[in-house]
Amino acid sequence: MYTMANIHLVPEPIKDFTCITCHIMFTNSEAHKVHYKSEWHRYNLHRKVSELPPITLEAFEQKSTVYRTGDTDKDKDKEKKNQKCKMCRKKFGSEKQYSNHLVSKNHKKKMEEKNKDAVFSKNPTNTENEMEIDTDSDVESLNSEEWLDDLENPIERNDCLFCDHHSRSITRNLKHMMVEHSFFVPDLEYCIDQRGLLTYLGQKIYSEYTCLWCNNSGRQLQSVEAVRSHMIDKGHCRMLFEGETLLEYMRFYDYSLSYPDAKDADPDSEPPKTVLDVEGYELKLPSGKVIGHRALMRYYKQNLGLEPVTRTKKSEEKLRKLLMQYRALGDANMQMEAAQRRARDVQYLQRVQTKYSTQLQFKQNKLQKHFRKQSNY
């Protein structure tokens, strides 16, 4: 028989909903379900997998705010880097390049042409003939060589060919490229136009998208960034300066000082006919090197023994320190011998080129059927 002393009133337990991952409790199931779908819960799950303790809601909100602010800054940086000129249809990798482009001659010229076209379209008295003339002039301007002014050659601003470094002078620019990119100007002492040579190299990189070492022998690159990254990654930050390539850079050099017999030699003298045999496939230079026929190019490419050699010596006062650094990187005697060989090769190629040009002009004059004597007797 039960009595009042044997009966104990047990209170009804309170139902609590707990998230073990975040260490938090909820009073109802709806809030519990919503919590499972929140980013805070997912973040703590990732921390739990990494064996890290959970964080509070306030700490998670602070992290989220910092992360969103960082993304906004990155987006702004990308917008600054990906500057684009819609009128010229060009993209620029930095804000500095974009600002330099805005003050260039061709950009201002195109702005003026656009304003003229706007005024021209508003004028109803223009005829179709005038429009055709304007169209022809636009095509002619596109085909002209004036577009080269808008290539923004870095040498004009004393900038590096391979990066965005700016120098105060052409000598400091050469020193920077030597230290940072191992770029050397071959036979710097005999280079009579350093700025002209570097400007020409910049035109090849920024206009023709050509690697200075491959020199159109490899695949064709499509942008300046691709050329620069290719040259840096492959170690091609150097000039191809031997063989037929000497003719390409001949106008920037003067080897007369290194060749004692150059003043007494006759530039119009003919080389031995046995060497200038047009039926052969090789042309032997005085230094011993052999230039092969382009028909056998695929065979010569299989064994390229290219050895870039530089020679430096004290010449001008402003290049004295740079020349001393050049000289410290190699044997001076070996460099002098290499420069003398190149000087003889350049002189020999000039004679061959002059002889061939004279023969070609003579043949063309002989083949002209409309030729008549100018004398009256």
TrEMBL record:
Protein location: Cytoplasm
Pfam families assigned to the protein according to its UniProt record, in alphabetical order: zf-C2H2_2, zf-C2H2_jaz
Plastid as UniProt keyword: no
C2H2-type domain sequence ranges: 19-41, 85-107
Molecular-function GO terms, alphabetical: nucleic acid binding; zinc ion binding
Keywords: Cytoplasm, Metal-binding, Repeat, Ribosome biogenesis, Zinc, Zinc-finger
SMART domains: ZnF_C2H2, ZnF_U1
UniProt-listed GO biological process terms: ribosomal large subunit biogenesis
GO CC entries: cytoplasm; preribosome, large subunit precursor
Keyword presence, Protein biosynthesis: no
Coiled coil: none
Primary localization class, coarse: cytoplasm
SUPFAM superfamilies on file: beta-beta-alpha zinc fingers
Family: Belongs to the REI1 family.
Name of the protein: C2H2-type domain-containing protein
